[in-house]
Amino acid sequence: MSRRGENVYKRKDGRWEGRILRPDGKYRYVYAKTYKEVKDKQKNYEKYIKPQDNKIDCPVANAAGLFDCWLSGDILDQVKPSTYENYYRCIKNYVIPFFKTTGNENLSEITAAQFTKHIKNYSALSESYKRKILIIFKTALKEILKGSPKFSAIMGTVILPKAGNKEVQAFSINEQRLIENAAYHSKDKRALGIILTFYTGIRLGELCALKWNDIDCEAGVMSVTKTVTRVNCFQPGRHGGTLLVGTPKSQKSIRKIPLPEFLVDMYKKYISFCMNENCYLISGTTTPEDPRSYQKLYKKVLAAAGVNNRKFHAIRHTFATRAMELGIDIKTLSEILGHSNVSTTLNIYAHSLMEQKKIAMNRFNELHITHMESTLIAVKSLVVNA
Q1: What is the residue range of 305's domain?
Q2: Residue 162 vs residue 164, higher pLDDT
Q3: Do 158 and 61 reside in the same domain of the chain?
Q4: Is 38 helix (H, G, I), strand (E, B) or coil?
Q5: Domain boundary residue among 36, 51, 66?
Q6: What are the DSSP E strand ranges found in 47-167?
Q7: Tens digits of residue pLDDT in 358-385
Q8: pLDDT greater than 60 at residue 331
Q9: In the predicted structure, residue 57 carries a pLDDT above the cut 80
């Protein structure tokens, strides 16, 4: 929903976006949860903006400098800190070093194509990470080359590798029982979050961000509205990481999940020990649990269960696999998982879906055998009577 003449509109992800014309003729974008917040950001920026603040100090011929400027520019305000961290690592570790090598100092069709080839042939990187680097490279190029007559030519040289349908790792039903048993009998009651994840499919960051008031025991529903991420600080003179509580991966990730009755009963036993409903479910305090710390606890539970170590995300995959085994339709599953669309769910769990299709088609085999047996018996009976 746009506001005519104000350069403000509501995005599909639910956020409001405001556009500000800078003295250099380019636009700066600001984002917020509400229309009023965007308008305030526009006013504050326009109040203090100065033409010299928008001058680009990077030499145009220096490709490495252009990418460095992109990292320190408007992109800082346009994406989440966790997303910026991914951008920073890819640009600093792969893009800038390549464009600093002799012969690759300038940004052109040839150097862009050579960088793409360089990443695709980088044997030490996984296929998914190669694709990630090139996507970020292309994102940076779009901004750097905006308005350039070489835009289409250079962008056309960056061809992304096809996304492979990697088979997801999920625990078997026997492994799941062992892990649940170990978590339930653990002296560390934070381990109950593992059981909660097995039956809701929430992400690790979402689990760490849950508060007691997010669980409605009367309605039997859990609200997922936040996520916890640990991000590094990239500002000069500051080091280390910090925990951030922000919105989940996408707008669809903000959701309500109905809880199985046994989960509601399990948490009813412990809610009386919580003095403040604003406390975080896992940490039990007003400070969220660090996802890294929880991963260490998760590994201890796996060891106690005698199950081989896998990423925490395997629990989410296990939930989705069990859901399909139980016949839950893909649309419902997609909404519970908080995927942006059904196609995402279909792509990730293509293998599991194929297994369910095989099971379904085997019913036709049973139908055929049953039908043929009854037909043969009837034919034999006619022959004997004749």
Answers
A1: 173-346
A2: 162
A3: yes
A4: helix
A5: 51
A6: none
A7: 777 877 887 777 776 666 565 555 555 5
A8: yes
A9: no
The token pair that represents 314 in the structure block: 């395997």
- Locate 106 and state its tokens: 């300038």
Cα 138 from Cα 132, distance rounded (Å):
10
Q: Are residues 180 and 149 in the same domain?
A: no
Give the domain CATH number at 142: 1.10.150
Closest CA to 30 of 21, 40, 19, 22: 19
**pLDDT at position 274:** 64
Which residue in the block uniquely carries the two structure tokens 């760490």?
208
Q: What is the spatial distance between Cα 174 and Cα 54, in angstroms, rounded to a whole number? A: 60
pLDDT beyond 80 at 285 = yes
* Residue 116 identity (one-letter amino acid): T
Read off the DSSP letter of residue 211.
B
Structure tokens at 282: 């896992």
Q: How many structural domains are present in the chain?
A: 4
In a shared domain, residues 47 and 81 = no
Q: pTM of the full predicted structure?
A: 0.70
341 and 368: one domain? no
Residue 55: per-residue pLDDT: 38
Q: Is the pLDDT of residue 145 over 80?
A: yes
Look-up: residue for tokens 């590994």?
299
Q: What is the pLDDT of residues 260-276, one digit of tens each?
A: 999 999 888 877 666 57
DSSP state of 213: G
Same domain (yes/no): 220, 277:
yes
User: At 273, is the secondary structure helix, strand, or coil?
Assistant: coil
Question: Do residues 318 and 293 share a domain?
Answer: yes
Last residue of one domain, picked from the residues 12, 30, 51: 51
Q: What are phi and psi of 350, to 5 degrees?
A: -60, -40
> Which CATH number does the domain housing residue 179 bear?
1.10.443.10
Q: Are residues 25 and 125 in the same domain?
A: no
Rounded distance, CA 384 to CA 386, Å? 5
Contact status, residue 318 vs residue 176, Cβ threshold 8 Å? yes
Nearest CA to 71 among 52, 50, 95?
Answer: 95
**How many CB atoms are located within 10 Å of the residue 361 CB?**
9
For residue 162, is pLDDT > 60?
yes
Asked if 177 and 319 sit in the same domain, the reply is: yes
Q: Residues 182-223: pLDDT tens digits?
A: 999 999 999 999 999 999 999 999 999 999 999 998 899 999
Helix (DSSP H) and strand (DSSP E) numbers for the chain: 17, 9
Pull the structure tokens for residue 276: 């403040």
Q: What is the pLDDT of residue 35?
A: 83
